[in-house]
Design a protein that fits this description.
globular, five-stranded mixed beta sheet, Nucleotidyltransferase, domain 5, alpha/beta, 14 strands, 15 helices
Length: 404
């Protein structure tokens, strides 16, 4: 009995450490009295655990609060330099790598072009080099890092760390990336769908702070979504939830990279916009993009289209508006089906073109039940292009805190 009692005491103490660390993370700088008032832990238990966390330098004293009489209470906050993680964000064109500190800030970042059409070995080696480069850039010893988080397009198996069949990076199909990273680097690795980690980063540090449930829509070269229920990533059964980009939205629409027809991604993604721009220019539609396209077709990418739209180019503006309308309809369907506390819109298209976000919001609000959106919010991403790498690093921090 004494053995079980000892285990139970350790379990309760570890759980209390977890509660206190999470509370300081969410609300710091904060006093012991405020922790006690909100967690139902005794002041003695809080005092003992706080002293322990201070000795371990996981938290630090961050000044003093206003006194209500007597000594000023000490404010506590996470120590940003306690531990670090590496966040990797893969998409169809780039590899972003960042060093993420204990407070979720990207303190160093590298970005390289991804050869998405290459074979497995070349892409994996590119990822390895990105990890090596970002670790060297910050100059921290390897033991200061507690893990590597990777945000990748799906579908993937987050439990076993295997990327399954990403339509836009075929070279990563069936790659056990978690295993390969852990064999190469002496630390744990976690693999998660990109939109899921973006949702997680917005929950911890961005537009979803203080909420329990949110859905993140990633409107980028591809289109995906991440779902948070009760402050945890929702994977579905077994792990395929959130593939909004492959919901059919146009019955007889163009073929998608996934093999289906009329997917949201096939008609509204950044890749779809670029494809449509080329089709319209070949039809003779006037646009400032036309001379570029005639000279070299591949110079008309999504960045060129968005710049042309900012210059009032009618073709570019119409293509972005059409894309936003499709995404807005998809968002309205999500609201009617799930009614989360908030929907956060991010990704290249919304981050770089504010009118795109406003159009999505307008269409979504006009097409869902009015009674649903009275309380619900549609917000633009606060972390923007940093959401992927911060989310990937946050994935590791969340596991580290759980282990703590």
């Amino acid at each position: 009995m004494s053995v079980h009692k000892g285990k139970n005491i350790r379990h309760v103490k570890n759980l209390n450490r977890y509660v206190i660390l999470h509370f300081i993370r969410d609300h710091g700088p904060i006093t012991k009295a405020e922790i006690a008032a909100s967690t139902n832990l005794t002041f003695t238990a809080i005092n003992n655990i706080v002293d322990e966390l201070l000795r371990e330098r996981l938290i630090l004293e961050a000044g003093y609060d206003i006194s209500s009489g007597g000594r000023k209470p000490v404010l506590l906050d996470l120590n940003p330099d306690a531990v670090f993680t590496i966040g990797i964000h893969l998409n169809a064109s780039t590899i972003k790598a960042s060093v993420i500190n204990f407070k979720g800030a990207a303190v160093a970042q590298e970005e390289t072009k991804l050869n998405a059409g290459a074979g497995r070995d070349i892409i994996v080696e590119q990822i390895f080099r990105a990890v090596d480069a970002i670790m060297s850039k910050q100059g921290l010893p390897k033991e200061r890092f507690v893990g590597i988080g990777v945000a990748s397009p799906g579908p993937l198996d987050p439990y076993n760390g295997v990327i399954l069949s990403p339509p836009n990076i075929p070279g990563l199909a069936s790659v056990p990336l978690k295993q390969l990273l852990e064999e190469r680097f002496p630390m744990p690795a976690l693999i998660e769908k990109d939109a899921n980690v973006m949702a997680l980063s917005e929950l911890w540090y961005g537009a979803g702070r203080g909420l329990n449930n949110l859905i993140y829509i990633d409107a980028d070269l591809g289109i995906g979504s991440g779902i948070i229920f009760n402050r945890k990533i929702y994977h579905g059964f077994p792990y395929g939830a959130g593939e909004i980009g492959h919901a059919t939205i146009e019955l007889d629409g163009p073929r998608c990279n996934c093999g289906n027809y009329g997917c949201l991604e096939a008609v509204a993604s950044g890749m779809a916009i670029v494809r449509r721009a080329g089709q319209e220019i070949r039809r003779g539609v006037a646009s400032e993009l036309a001379p570029m396209y005639v000279t070299a077709e591949d110079t008309v990418d999504i960045h060129a289209v968005m710049e042309a739209a900012q210059n009032k180019d009618v073709l570019a503006a119409n293509l972005l508006n059409e894309s936003a309308r499709y995404v807005g309809i998809a968002v309205a369907n999500v609201i009617n089906l799930i009614t989360p506390e908030t929907i956060v819109i991010g990704g290249l298209l919304a981050n770089k073109h504010p009118q795109y976000f406003e159009q999505i919001k307008s269409v979504a609000m006009s097409r869902c039940f009015a009674s649903f959106h009275k309380e619900m919010m549609i917000n633009a991403s606060e972390l923007k292009e940093q959401a992927g790498v911060i989310g990937a690093g946050t994935l590791v921090l969340e596991q580290y805190l759980s282990n703590e």
